[in-house]
What we know:
The protein is α/β, with parallel strands linked by helices and about 240 residues long. About 35% of the residues lie in helices and about 25% in strands. The strands form two sheets. Strands 6-7-8-3-9-10 form a six-stranded mixed sheet, with helices on both faces. Strands 2-1-4-5 form a four-stranded antiparallel sheet, with helices on one face.
Amino acid sequence: MSLISAVNISKHYQVGGSLVRAVSDVSFEIETGEFVAVIGRSGSGKSTLMSLLGLLETPDSGHYRLKGLEVAKLDRNRRAALRCREIGFVFQMSSLLPRSSALENVELSLAYAGVRRAERRRRARDALDRVGLSHRLDHWPYQLSGGEQQRVAIARAIVNEPALILADEPTGAVDSRTADGIMSLFEHLNGDDRTIIVVTHAADVARRTRRIITLNDGYLIADERVGPALPSTVAAPIGRVA
Ligand code: ADP
Ligand code: MG
């Protein structure tokens, strides 16, 4: 069973009198442990596809299965529970709470999952350690660099040990060296059999993954395997990234 199975999924929006075909007839399967880039011009449907894969939206037609579950058949609550348990999101801009420390920001996603305080704290520290930020636990977002803020966001996405990480242009707002560090971190996390899907429009970012799916006007126009990342970058110690 594939982790993700999308069969002819479409999402169209009615805006005023016209129909926007954001995602049209897209099909693919993604196995556990894959590292995938989704590329395409602005407006090609990348974010909409991520919302569908991340259970934030349901397709108008087609079938989307996550871990074999037909998502459209689940009610709202079960869908939210599945999202909370299986999916971690990372967005382009830091979506951290400005008046909470790095540690509190990461802890918060466990509070939603009903984890008790002492356990939350322990797991949040561990997640921040894994992204190389154990020395920044009490910093507020404005006291962190853009790359560090993204790493807090990644810690928040992994703290629940989700099967799937969805990152929508996570390197879009940082310089290329910082982007490199963020990709090294994803490579490292992917090594633990975590499935990662990264939206990007930077070719050098996409080349660091193992598979590139290209969208154009909502259609999937290419789905290619690419070579493995360089071993030297995979092995880079996490503490030194970004
Ligand atoms: P990308 O992330 O590749 O830039 P999007 O998925 O954001 O593309 O958008 C794809 C198309 O769908 C665009 O034309 C966009 O304007 C439209 N779109 C996206 N979300 C909505 C929405 N909630 N309502 C109406 N149109 C939308
Ligand atoms: Mg987008």
